[in-house]
Design a protein that fits this description.
The chain is mostly helical. Helices cover 82% and strands 0% of the residues.
Length: 361
C-alpha cells in the first residue's frame, strides 16, 4: 500500500514536470511581446533553461530524496521569480527553473527505475504521466495569452512544486542512493554506452524541446490567433501522450527496435510537412504526427542507455540536446528572419536519427 501511494504521488509529480517543461514554449508568444524579445534572445532563454536542466540531472547523486527536495524547491523559486521579474534577470530565473526541473525529473525517474527493476515499459508509463501534464499545459495559458498576465499560471505552478517539496520531506522511504557504483564517474559513459545511442538520445530530446518550444509562436506567425497558438502545441503533446499510452498497452506485442525505426520515419515525414504547410489544418496534423513519433522513442532509448550505465550522465547529455536545438532554432530564425527556416534544425536532426537507426545495429 505504501509503495502504491508513493508511486501515485510520483506519477502526479511527474505530470507537474510535464507542465513545467511545456510552459516556456506555451507562454513564448506572450513573453516575446511582454519582454520585447527577439527570436535569438528567446532561444537563449531555452538554452539557459535546458542547460540548467542537464546540470540538474548531473547533480543527482547520493540520496534521491534530497535531490528531489532540492529540485522541487528550485522550480518553485524559479517560477515565482519569472512571474514577477518583468524581464529583468529572466536569464538567471530561467536557469534556476531548468536546474530544478532537471533535478526533479531525474530523481523521480531513478526512483521509479529502482522500484520497477529497470523496466523500459515502466519508463514509458512514467513519461506517459509527463505527457499528460505537457498536453494540458497550453490550455492553462489561454488567460495569459489573452490578457498578457503570466503571473497566475507561473504562481500556480510554483505552488504545485512547493507542495511536492513538502511531501518529499515526510517520505523517508525515498532515501535511495542514486546508483552508480562509487568508482563510476560521469565521463565513463562514453566508454560504456555506444556512441550512436548517446547521440540519438541527445537528438530526440532536442527535437522534442525545439518543437514544443516554438510551435505556439510558429502558429501565431502563420496567421492563427490565440486558438491556433494553443491548438498547435496541444496537438503535439496530445500525439506524444497517445503514442505513449498506445505503447504502454501494446508493448508486449511490439519489438523495441521496430518501434523506434517506425517512429523516426513518422517524425521525418511530419517535420517535412510542418515546414511545408506553415499554417492551417495540415500544420496541426504535422504537429500531432511529430509528437506521436517522439512519444515512445525517448523512453526506449533511455532504457537502453541505462542498461549500460546508471546514474545521471545520460540525463545530462539528453539535457544538452534539449538545450542546443531550441537555441539553434531561434538563432537560425533570427539570422534568416524566418521561423520556418529555423524549424529546419529539428527536421535535419530527425533525418539524421533515422539514418543512424537504419545504419547502426
Amino acid at each position: 500500500m505504501f509503495r502504491s501511494r508513493v508511486a501515485a504521488s510520483l506519477y502526479l509529480g511527474f505530470a507537474a514536470t510535464g507542465v513545467g517543461v511545456a510552459l516556456p514554449g506555451a507562454l513564448l508568444p506572450t513573453l516575446l511581446l511582454r519582454w520585447h524579445l527577439q527570436d535569438e534572445q528567446a532561444g537563449r532563454l531555452f538554452l539557459l533553461a535546458w542547460i540548467g536542466s542537464s546540470l540538474g540531472a548531473l547533480l543527482v547523486r547520493g540520496s534521491l530524496r534530497t535531490t528531489l527536495l532540492a529540485g522541487s524547491s528550485a522550480v518553485a523559486f524559479g517560477a515565482t521569480g519569472l512571474a514577477f521579474c518583468a524581464g529583468r534577470g529572466a536569464d538567471a530565473w530561467m536557469a534556476l527553473y531548468g536546474l530544478g526541473l532537471g533535478l526533479t525529473m531525474t530523481s523521480m525517474t531513478l526512483i521509479r527505475q529502482r522500484q520497477s527493476g529497470g523496466s523500459g515499459t515502466e519508463l514509458v508509463r512514467l513519461n506517459l504521466m509527463w505527457a499528460i501534464g505537457a498536453c494540458a499545459c497550453p490550455s492553462l495559458t489561454i488567460r495569459a495569452q489573452t490578457d498578457g498576465d503570466i503571473r497566475p499560471v507561473l504562481c500556480g505552478l510554483a505552488l504545485c512544486f512547493a507542495a511536492l517539496a513538502v511531501w518529499t520531506i515526510f517520505q523517508p522511504g525515498l532515501s535511495i542512493e542514486a546508483s552508480a557504483p562509487r568508482h563510476t564517474i560521469p565521463w565513463t559513459i562514453f566508454r560504456n554506452v555506444p556512441l550512436g545511442l548517446i547521440v540519438m538520445t541527445m537528438l530526440i530530446t532536442g527535437i522534442e524541446a525545439s518543437a514544443g518550444g516554438w510551435l505556439a509562436t510558429y502558429a501565431r506567425r502563420g496567421g492563427h490567433g490565440i486558438a491556433g497558438a494553443v491548438a498547435a502545441p496541444s496537438c503535439f503533446w496530445a500525439g506524444l501522450l497517445l503514442s505513449r499510452l498506445f505503447w504502454s498497452l501494446f508493448s508486449r506485442w511490439l519489438t523495441h527496435d521496430w518501434t523506434v525505426r517506425c517512429s523516426l520515419a513518422l517524425m521525418g515525414c511530419a517535420s517535412i510537412l510542418l515546414i511545408a504547410s506553415g499554417s492551417g489544418s495540415l500544420m496541426l496534423v504535422a504537429a500531432f504526427s511529430l509528437g506521436f513519433g517522439i512519444g515512445p522513442t525517448y523512453p526506449l532509448l533511455l532504457a537502453w542507455a541505462l542498461r549500460f550505465q546508471r546514474g545521471g550522465a545520460i540525463f545530462f547529455l539528453a539535457g544538452v540536446g534539449s538545450a542546443c536545438l531550441p537555441w539553434l532554432t531561434g538563432l537560425v530564425s533570427a539570422r534568416q528572419q524566418s521561423l520556418r527556416l529555423g524549424l529546419a534544425v529539428p527536421m535535419v536532426a530527425t533525418i539524421l536519427m533515422l539514418t543512424m537507426s537504419i545504419a547502426l545495429p
